[in-house]
Amino acid sequence: MKQHIVVLTGAGMSAESGLKTFRDENGLWEGHDVTKVATPKAFKENPQLVLEFYNQRRRQLKQVKPNSGHFDLANLENQYKVTIITQNIDNLHERAGSSNVIHLHGELFKVRSTYNENDIIAWENDLKLGDFCQNNSQLRPHIVWFGEPVPMMEKAINVCMTADILIIIGTSMQVYPACSLIHYISEKTPIYFIDPKPAIQSKQNVTVITETATVGVKKAIELINQSL
Fold it and tell me: What pLDDT band is residue 27 in, cutting at 50, 70 and 90?
């Protein structure tokens, strides 16, 4: 039976593809106050601004490509069972070939009904006011905004509980509830933490790799292959 590698990715995974998938240290996301573009209140007060913000993100995503880190993770499936849990809303893991990806915070190339949250539609173009679902209600980005529940969290927890190895890439582990996933890993499970500015230190079962995603993923895979 193949070893199960669970990979938790954040903004640093997509940064080398040219995407800023989350807010910068100054609290802005692509120059916008996140409270104005990523909350249910913002959508209610200024839906035009919110829709255009995500239209820009969608256009940007079409201009970039997966980086070597994405492809290295996809190729891991040749040797291991791999589940990727990502905080990113892009589709770069899938485009690189990963077949088992859980999106905690939603997906940029999907929209959903404001009438029925389970009515989810693939969507790659601009989303405008007046784009309605089958129930004649406005469509909204299929994104988990601040203050909203994270529907995929339970599935992610169950996956983490089955991990033989955990790789964490490009995340500060500060965003709740995603940061809590590390607590569902068995105490003895090896963890590889990849980040140029790591938030944790190496200890018994934790190996910190102070590198960007593209370099760090290669190093982690080498260490994993050597240890098995």
Answer: low
101 and 109 Cβ atoms separated by less than 8 Å: no
The CATH number that applies at residue 120 is 3.30.1600.10
Q: Which domain holds residue 155?
A: 1-19+67-105+151-228
Please give the model's pTM, rounded to 2 decimal places.
0.94
**4 tagged catalytic:** no
Q: 123, 143, 163: which is the final residue of a domain?
A: 143
Residue 219 neighbours by CB under 8 Å, 6+ apart: 194, 209, 211
The catalytic residue among 93, 103, 105, 142 is: 105
End-to-end, the C-alpha distance of the chain in Å comes to: 13
